Every structure is written in C-alpha cells, then in structure tokens.
Amino acid sequence: MTADLPLLHHVVSGQGEPLLVLHGLFGSGKNWQSHARRIAEHFSIHVVDLRNHGDSFHAEDMSYPAMAADVQRLIETLGIEGCRVLGHSMGGKVAMTLAARYPGLVSQLVVADIAPVSYFHDYDDLLDPVLALPLAELQSRAQADLALRENIPEDPLRAFLLQNLQRDAGGWRWRVNWRVIQREMESLTGFESLAGWQIDLPTLFIRGARSDYVGDAELEVIQRHFSRAEIATVDDAGHWLHAEQPEAFVGAVLEFLRRS
To answer: What CA–CA distance (Å, rounded) separates 13 from 29?
Structure first.
C-alpha cells in the first residue's frame, strides 16, 4: 500500500511559494542542483527523487498513477497548498498525472520536453550493459566507466548513468532500480488513455528546438487536454534542454511562474 511506503527523498532550498521539481528517467534530484540555486532566489524549491531513483525507496510498481500518488502524499504531508510542479521527461508525465488525478492540488504546471502520449524506446542498449556490470568485482568508478565504454561510447551519457553508482560499506551499488525499470519500460514509455482528462490550470510546455519529443502531432494532443497550455521553445537544445541551455530554460520557467 502507498501509505506504508516512506516519503520520497527531497531537498528544500530557498524561500517563498513552493515549487516541486521532478527529474527524468535514470536521473535524480541532484541533476537539478544548479537550477535549484537559481530558482531558489524566487521560490521555495523542493527537488524530489522519484521512486526507484536517487535516495528514494525502491518498489515493484513504476506506473504513473503510483508515482503521482507518491508525490501527492509528499505534498499533503508537507502541508503545501496550491503547489507549483515542474517535471522533465518521465517527471513531466508524473506531473501531468498528478494534476489530472488530484485536481486542486497543483496551481501551475511546467512540463519539459514531453507530451501526454506514448513513445517507443526500450533502452535495452543502455540497460543490458549496466545490468551486466559485475559490481562485486569493481575496484573503482573508472573501472566501471571503462567496462561500459564499448557499449555506451557517448561520454556524457555514460557519465549521466554512472552518477547513480554509489559506494558504501557494503561495496558498490546502484541507486537506480534498473531491473524494475527494465521490466516496466512499456509502462514508462507509454501513457494511459487521456479519455475524460481536461486540465484547466496554467501549464507551460517547454520543448527543445532540436528534440523530436514534442512535434505538431503532440501539440494537438496537448491542446486537446490542457485548456490553458502555453508552448515555449528553447533554441539550440534537444531533449536535455535544461542542461544544454540552462539560462534560457530557467528564464522561460521563471517568467511563466511569476507571470501566471
């Protein structure tokens, strides 16, 4: 039962009205530290680790309703009213599900480079080499990096995945629950039917100009289900728009939040 689970791990900084930030797949709240410092000048920012990621609990269910319920419980436990929520990629789908299932809980929504549609990607080219890594034999993070290089040659991507590798008294371990994520990938890349959903709250969909996640077809779905949706495009950015163009991204988010 959801009520029996621990609260999601989260880090709070800044002062003012609250804003929750939800990271994407394979990420964690740590990916948002630099953005949090900037946003914390204007809001009380809660950077969250979603289930099976970061320092939050591991669980067998990775459905969007389950993840949205985790966030709902965190918001209500913290006593936050009229919460603003920003979510990137998987976190954006969690944020949309939260707004749809718990009307009145969210006052403003920012969805970064994702739409309320299904996408095709199994990520086996990443998950298989990661799961094959012999943690008990590792002597260093550099050794893990070398072992993954043949199958994951892109340095930034490999570094992003390896930030989830942590060493403690028991040896090396992953903070990400890779096996559950691989098993639930169809659910994560999919999205349940929006039949009956009509979200009437200020929502910014912000996309990267070089990303193919939010195109014309996706915009039609957004406009069908989000009656107050605004669209912003960050130039010279792909799916990781917040990392590729941080100033433009944070500027657009703050302009929307403060204006709305």
So the answer is: 12
